[in-house]
Write a structure and sequence with these properties.
- The protein is α+β, with helices and mostly antiparallel strands.
- The protein has 4 domains: about 5-20 and about 175-315, MoaB/Mog-like domain (Molybdenum Cofactor Biosythetic Enzyme, Chain A, 3-Layer(aba) Sandwich), CATH 3.40.980.10; about 20-45 and about 135-170, Molybdopterin biosynthesis moea protein, domain 2; about 50-135, Beta Complex (Molybdopterin biosynthesis moeA protein, domain 3), CATH 2.170.190.11; about 325-395, Beta Barrel (Beta-clip).
- The protein contains 7 helices and 29 strands.
- The chain has helices spanning about 5-15, 155-160, 200-210, 225-235, 255-260, 295-315, 365-370, and strands at about 20-25, 30-35, 35-40, 50, 55, 65-75, 90, 105, 110-115, 120, 130-135, 145, 165-170, 175-180, 185, 195, 215-220, 240-245, 265-270, 270-275, 275-285, 285-290, 325-330, 330-335, 340-350, 355-360, 375-380, 385, 390-395.
- A 6-stranded mixed sheet has the order 8-5-7-6-10-9, with no helix packed on it. A 6-stranded mixed sheet has the order 17-14-18-22-21-19, sandwiched between helices.
- A hairpin with a 2-residue loop joins strand 25 (about 340-350) and strand 26.
- The two termini are about 30 Å apart.
């Protein structure tokens, strides 16, 4: 067996570098900037009001309450054509530009208007700039908005739209194929000795959750020719390929025979549980991950090896799940076996501490416990973690 860190380093070091390109802003969510973005104009582009109310001269509110003459109304999107003079006020709506002469806004709740709508009584004194959003208060022309390596979330998209940036230089989103193999697997109702294929759907969902476009390469029987055709087609059409099954010691060697013939592969027994068997290599320069067939092992192997590798392939700098120290409630038992165990745990944050408990059965076939898990507790070789003991946890969500 080889250490986990050695196996992961081998995978990461052999993955290709990210490819940059320009995409429309609407398709950039979740992608990583390959170049910095600078503002070409001020945001906001003009002084405007943060409140519905009245634009005034701050000096005129001294000694409030004071009565001021209403000289007009200014809606958002309008251009002021009247100056606010001494002793005057202009009704103004949120987002509207501050009219000439005014230097403050009094919110409508602190005013009252005469029945004939000609005079407003301002009930409070306000300083210069009160409720005024200044030109360039958010962004100034030439200011660096985002650095290269920024992962674009919804707020980033909004900021880019606000400065007129309708296309961005990013690292290209990956397309990753997912293939299931095995005569025992079916997509419909299982017959005798058969089970439903869950790995393909789970892996496609994991890809989507990671910001990757999943490509369903289908379910292939234990036939070398069909397996080779599916893997080669996936390697041509996709940036990487995930297979599940056929990588354990004692498995039928259809997948092994094909990958050894068409790719430069390394077959590893990693000192972890679950997900000990791992295959990784290149088929025509396309990374291929051979994940275990057991459902939990397949998902854990994805989390530990495939996910960080794929994130690195489209520009992410932070490819690891967050790691925290947590207190074990009830203990996490295990037996010494020379492996690091990744136990599925439910995570809570209480009184300033992370706390974890077992999410259920820890067998590599018990997928329901994986669905209940918020994290993977990293349990070194030994007798496990006692009740109240500390354990490192990879947060899955």
């Amino acid at each position: 067996m080889i250490p986990f860190e050695e196996a992961r380093a081998y995978v990461l070091n052999r993955c290709p570098a990210p490819v940059a390109g320009v995409v429309d802003l609407r398709g950039a969510l979740g992608l990583v900037l390959s170049e910095p973005v600078c503002a070409l104009e001020a945001v906001p582009p003009f002084d405007n009001t943060a409140m519905d109310g009245f634009a005034v001269r701050a000096a005129d509110t001294t000694g409030a309450p004071v009565a001021l003459s209403i000289v007009g109304t200014l809606a958002a999107g309008s251009v002021p054509d009247t100056e606010v003079g001494a002793g005057e006020a202009m009704r103004i709506m949120t987002g509207a530009p501050i009219p000439p002469g005014a230097d403050a806004v009094v919110m409508v709740e602190r005013t009252s208007v005469t029945d004939d709508d000609t005079v407003v009584t301002v009930e409070v004194e306000v300083p210069v700039g009160n409720h005024v959003r200044g030109t360039g208060e958010d962004l100034r022309p030439g200011q660096k908005v985002f650095v290269a390596g920024t992962v674009l979330g919804p707020a980033h998209i909004g900021v880019l739209a606000s400065i007129g940036c309708r296309s961005v230089a990013v690292y290209r989103r990956l397309r990753v194929g997912v293939l299931s193999t095995g005569d025992e697997l079916v997509t419909g109702t299982p017959g005798p000795g058969q089970i439903r294929d869950s790995n393909r759907d789970a892996l496609l969902a994991l890809l989507e959750d990671s910001g990757v476009t999943g490509v369903d390469l289908g379910l292939v029987a234990d036939d070398e020719h069909e397996i080779e055709q599916a893997i080669v087609a996936g390697a041509v059409d996709c940036d990487a390929v995930l297979t599940s099954g056929g990588v354990s010691m004692g498995d039928f060697d259809y997948v092994k025979a094909v990958l050894d013939r068409i790719g430069d592969m390394r077959w590893m027994q990693v000192a972890i549980r679950p997900a000990k068997p791992l295959v990784f290599g290149l088929v025509e320069d396309t990374p291929v991950f051979g994940l275990p067939g057991n459902p939990v092992s397949s998902m854990v192997s994805f989390e530990l090896f495939a996910r960080p590798a794929l994130l690195s392939m489209f520009g992410h700098v932070m490819v690891e799940r967050p790691r925290v120290m947590a207190v074990s409630d009830g203990g996490l038992g295990r037996r010494p076996d020379g492996k690091v165990h990744f136990a599925r745990v439910a995570v809570a944050y209480t009184d300033g501490r992370y706390r974890v408990r077992s999410a259920g059965g820890q067998g590599s076939h018990q997928l329901s416990a994986m669905a209940s898990a918020d994290g993977l507790a990293v349990i070194p070789d030994g007798d496990g973690v006692i009740d109240g003991g500390e354990v490192e946890v990879l947060l899955l969500r």
